[in-house]
Amino acid sequence: MMRSDAENTPAKSRPVIKTCLCFIVFLSITLYMIPNLDQTSSTSIDSEAEILQLEQSSNDKDQAEFSGRHTPRNGQHMSESSHELFKKNLMFIKTHKCGTSTLVDVFYLFGVRRKLNFVMFPSSHQLELLNVEFKPLLAPRPGTVYNMQCQHGTFRPNIEHTIMPKETSLYSTIVRSPVSQFKSAFSFFGAEGKVKKKLGSQATIDELIANYLNSHPPPDDNHVTTSLIINSIANDLGWTSFSNRPELEGSTLQEKIDAFIQHLDNEMDFVMITDRMDESLVLLKEYLGWNITDIMYLNRMVSSKPKVTMSDETKAKILQYQVIDRQIFDHFNASFERHIDKIGREKVSSLVKQFREMREAFENKCFNKNKTVKGPYNSISWEITDYGKNVNVACTFLQTRDVILTKVITQLQLSQDYTVPINGSSKPYLLKPIVMKLQRDFANNADPV
Fold first, then answer.
1. Average pLDDT by consecutive 10-residue portion of the chain (449 residues)?
2. 331 Cβ partners below 8 Å, 6+ apart?
3. Burial class (CB in 10 A: 0-12, 13-18, 19+), 368
4. Rounded-to-integer distance, Cα 146 and Cα 131, Å
5. Would you call 241 helix, strand, or coil by DSSP?
6. What does the angle CA 153 – CA 155 – CA 161 come to, to the nearest 5 degrees?
7. Rounded CA gap, 281 and 48, in Å?
8. Which residues lie closer than 8 Å to 122 by C-beta, 6 or more apart?
């Protein structure tokens, strides 16, 4: 009988042959796997990236509850800004007669929908941060931080920095053309009416302003007027305390102004321009990573007064007295152009066009522009439609005065669960169903614009 090779092989050689066979099999498998090593490695890396992405998504969702950023809504992607100024929170210094009440309503709506924390005192519309140890702020919800500041109050950076660190907060304010800002303040704060009583109802606007300005000394190195009417933007931004710094003793007025503007330039990440409101909001949205629907505003009041034209001489006299505000405006109006260049002129132009079309459509849904109603301070506004009262209550919210909304925010923050005003029968409490619907619609991804 014939024997196999294995049977003919001596017993001592068999272990060696087995070892060789095992090695050949191992080598064959290894060589087969080599072409797939890159693919295997890539799969492993992709899986790790997916895990990190899921973790980041979860973190973003948690952060959305109390940060300036938010998750995409209504199929729109959040503007994931790559700009160096991108910050989560907003520290906004409200300046007088610069359209800030409109802006604050926008900020409040953004915050109420997301249950954000605002810097404010428990029972005051003003925010004078002289010493927060003696006048405690309304605390944020446990485990969270302040997300926004947007009430009236003089800018005091040494205190602001401790409340809203610059590392995580966008520092911003808004300025306005000094002539139009003066005219608005002159009328709103009653100076025009007082002078008219003195000069008579037939006095022209040029005569009224000349009389008022002549009652104040013109600016020089020894004195410059800052008030709610003259150089009020400088007053809001902390001119008085800054100009009295020891290191500025003996400086000329112009030297102090130059130093003040440099100081503001260092403090402010982005300064908006009232005269370019739509562009300002688009740029702000880019820096905060908001959606374009988050910056919708309403023209709450329809002017009932005929426009009055001032002479060039009067405008020049206003600019003479508005010596600080004029230079602040000129500086930040120029820097505004650089912000547009940073974002991209074509992109900003396209976004502004889109925003204006959306805002006009939104406003036409909110208001019946064929009917007006009287508002506070003898103002006149359009009537809110049924859509604005029942379907999209953001219309009603944005039509409410910021003084009232401040009380609503206070009640919400006091409740600690940030749901509805906690008690009372005044107007803030009557806004309870509106607040509830805003938050419910936002949570259900059904907040229409």
1. 43 47 46 37 32 35 38 37 65 95 94 92 71 70 90 90 93 98 95 96 96 97 95 97 96 98 97 98 96 92 74 98 98 97 97 97 93 74 92 92 87 75 62 88 79
2. 261, 265
3. middle
4. 17
5. helix
6. 115
7. 38
8. 136, 138, 410, 414
DSSP strand E in 212-349: where?
A: 270-273
User: How does strand 169-175 pair with strand 270-273?
Assistant: parallel
Backbone angles phi, psi at 268, to 5 degrees: -95, 125
Which pLDDT score is estimated for 129? 63
The pair of three-digit structure tokens given for residue 172, joined into one six-digit string: 């911003």
- pLDDT at position 134 is 54
DSSP result, 145-192: ---EE-SB----HHHHHHHS-TTTEEEEEEE--HHHHHHHHHHHTSHH
Beta bridge pairs of residue 367: 384
Q: 336 φ, ψ to 5°?
A: -60, -40
Distance CA 101, CA 398 (A): 10
CA atoms of 322 and 260, how far apart (whole Å): 15
CA distances from 298 to 257, 278, 301, 359 (A): 35, 12, 9, 8
Angle at 111 between CA 150 and CA 289, to 5 degrees: 90
CA distance 220 to 144: 48
For residue 85, the tally of other CB atoms under 10 A from its CB is 16
Q: Give the Å distances, CA to CA, from 130 to 137, 146, 241.
A: 12, 18, 12
What are the phi and psi torsion angles at 189 (to 5°)? -90, 10
CB 175 within 8 A of CB 328: yes
Q: What is the pTM of this model?
A: 0.79
